[in-house]
Amino acid sequence: MNILLSGTGGQGVVLAGELLSRALFKAGYEVVNTHSYGAEARGGACRSEVLVSDEEIYDLSLTEADVLIAMSTPAYRRYISRVRNGGTVILDSAVAEELERLGVDLRSDVETITVPARRVAEELGYPIVANMVLIGALVKRSRLIDLEVVKKLVEEEMRPSMREINIRALEAGYSSLPLKD
User: How far apart are CA 3 and CA 64, in angstroms?
Assistant: First the structure.
């Protein structure tokens, strides 16, 4: 499975990709994670690519994504063409609303899921954890790993002051979606 996380610098796209990659590796998958962000960093284009497989990975480039997570409108516009036919797009609800206001038609050949990540993160009191809300939703939708694996990694690797809020954000994102049949 090829996962493309996208947004703008400062939204935690790289951190989310690294955390997801480490969690998938701990769960026994082969994983490759790369990331890219504009020279201006905060506010510039940003992406994190996660390639995950049961077998060794030889092709280290993500040409076509099975899943796109878009945390900003510019990211959606930039990367939507890289999602394979039949793939999944997970959008922050605020991005979906902005795309609708702009008259942008969403692709009909992919499943588009909206998650109120920004709103949930703001309700938690930490707008910066919208990335973790979206990772929680991805974990539930993809069924690649158990949420407990990701939460344990947060406990082990994040600084103590940010552990609880990130775990709450993961749980909120996970709870935001029904189980996929």
Answer: 9
pLDDT by residue, tens only, the chain of 181 residues: 999 999 988 888 989 999 999 999 999 999 999 888 665 455 667 899 999 999 888 877 778 999 999 999 999 999 999 999 999 999 999 999 999 999 988 999 999 999 999 999 999 999 999 999 999 999 999 888 999 999 999 999 889 999 999 999 999 999 987 666 5
Domain encompassing residue 90: 2-115+146-156
Q: Is the pTM of this model over 0.85?
A: yes
CATH number at residue 41: 3.40.920.10
Rounded CA-CA distance 85/169 in Å is 30
- Residue 163: inside a domain: no
Which of 17, 20, 51, 53 has the alpha carbon at shortest distance from 35? Answer: 17
Q: How far is CA 19 from CA 69, 102, 108, 150, in A?
A: 15, 33, 30, 8
CA distance linking residue 10 with residue 37, whole number of Å? 10
Number of domains, the chain: 1
